[in-house]
Amino acid sequence: MRTAYHEELARFHDRLGDLAGLAEGAIRQATQAVLDNDIDAARKLSAEEETISRLHRLLDADAVTLIARQQPVASELRTIVAGLRMSGDLDRMGALARHIAEIVQRRHPRAVVPEPLRALVAEMGETAQRMAAMARAAMASRDPAAAAELDRQDNEMDRLETTLAQRVIECTPPVEPATAMDLALIGRFYERFGDHAVALAARVAYLVGPVQEDLTV
Amino acid sequence: MRTAYHEELARFHDRLGDLAGLAEGAIRQATQAVLDNDIDAARKLSAEEETISRLHRLLDADAVTLIARQQPVASELRTIVAGLRMSGDLDRMGALARHIAEIVQRRHPRAVVPEPLRALVAEMGETAQRMAAMARAAMASRDPAAAAELDRQDNEMDRLETTLAQRVIECTPPVEPATAMDLALIGRFYERFGDHAVALAARVAYLVGPVQEDLTV
Question: Which chain A residues are within 8 Å of B182, Cβ to Cβ?
Answer without folding.
Answer: 184
